[in-house]
Amino acid sequence: MRQRFQILSDPRFRLVYNETRSFIDGPAPKKVRLNRENFNLVDGVKKKTKVYPGMLLATHPSIDKGDLHSPMYGEITEINHRSIFIDAVDQEGIEGQVEPIDVLAEGKEGEELILQMKQMGVNTKSLGQEVDTLIINGLNPDPGVTWAEPMLTQNGHNLHAGIELHKRLARAKHIVLAVPKGMHVSYDNIDVVCVEPEYPKSVNALLVKEVTGKENPEGVGAVGLHNIWSLGRVGVTGLPLMETVITIGSQTKWANYIVKNGMWIGQLLEYAGIELRDGDIISRGGPLRGECLDRLDRSITKGTTGLFVVESGTVPPMEGHSPCINCGACVQVCPAHLNPSTLSRYAEFANYNACLAEHSTHCLECGLCGYVCIARRPVLQYIRLANAKIKEMQEFVWEENK
Ligand code: SF4
Ligand code: SF4
Hints:
This protein is α/β, with parallel strands linked by helices. It has 13 helices and 17 strands. The chain has helices at residues 2-8, 103-106, 110-119, 148-153, 156-169, 204-212, 225-237, 265-271, 329-333, 340-348, 352-357, 368-372, 379-400, and strands at residues 24-25, 31-35, 40-41, 50-51, 56-59, 68-69, 74-79, 83-88, 133-137, 174-180, 191-195, 220-224, 243-249, 254-260, 281-284, 291-293, 306-310. The protein has a six-stranded mixed beta sheet, with helices on one face. Strands 2-8-7-4 form a four-stranded antiparallel beta sheet, with no helix packed on it. A hairpin with a 6-residue loop joins strand 15 and strand 16 (291-293). Helix 5 (156-169) packs across helix 7 and helix 10 (340-348) packs across helix 13 (379-400). The protein is globular. The relative contact order is 0.13. The structure holds iron/sulfur cluster (2 copies). The site of one iron/sulfur cluster has 16 residues, from helix 12 and helix 13.
């Protein structure tokens, strides 16, 4: 418990930044790389196809996974099973454009609206939960991410559109908006509750506990503010979702940007004026829950929330094969009551069945275990690997038994 207390009182875990600046429009992409894993290409989409903003490129077989659209004028330069690569070209000579749809005025609801949002590129898995009470998570997801305040207080038009659409597609009887303590906002027919903005309370399962006072209560779910923003973006523009809001930052410089899906991180860091030096680490997502990237031609997706440079010398890097010294810090800090040390060792030696037996799939991916690990073991990354392998094994068994 003592370790937990020390973390929660660490000022670096505060989730409020009093950010007052508006979102900055990101750069026009020079190249994009779109993730198309498990998507089906639309007929006629191939190498050298000329594309325009909002053009449908691929559909996903799942009803709650948004389809894929081109974010710009360009030409497809390569397609493989994982990605579609597009280079920007002059729009002259490219025929075709997408007509905006006034989805708010159309008044669709439930399944019909879920299908329309999917076709417009929105992932609706968390938005269409069948629960009695749905909590909109209005906290910044990770320390260092700062878009929640401007999203709540300055982008009212977008947020109102998102909440309105969400009310029409969610089956929840009761919607609650959780915001940082001290923030005063109000929305029609939505209860607003204030929560102490300290990490890891922004992790959905822990926010639910904070708001209801119960662990995993029946009939209660949570959805991120970022998802509501995406929904609102489609409502306001009438166009397919082609962008995301991310915090781009380093220790000395940060701001919030609206950037196109698939943009290369190298171009984004250059635009934000962040220079990389030897030994710097790039993290996509939040500093605690994000994933490290090894190349500047990696890209962001519609769900990316942040892009961070951890300067060399500021945080000791993870050591993949560093042995566990059994200090127990990760066990004390784990909010899911797991044993991250044991799980990471099972995963390290590919004993994924043992991980499953020890409930690795209950991991909330908060990243605290790796943060406190004095041996610098990539504990969360091991657990993520194990859970990905478990999912693969379960899908294989399911396919075999079909
Ligand atoms: S990442 Fe998972 S295992 Fe690690 S502390 Fe968080 S919940 Fe526990
Ligand atoms: S914090 Fe690191 S060294 Fe300590 S028990 Fe956990 S995995 Fe092992």
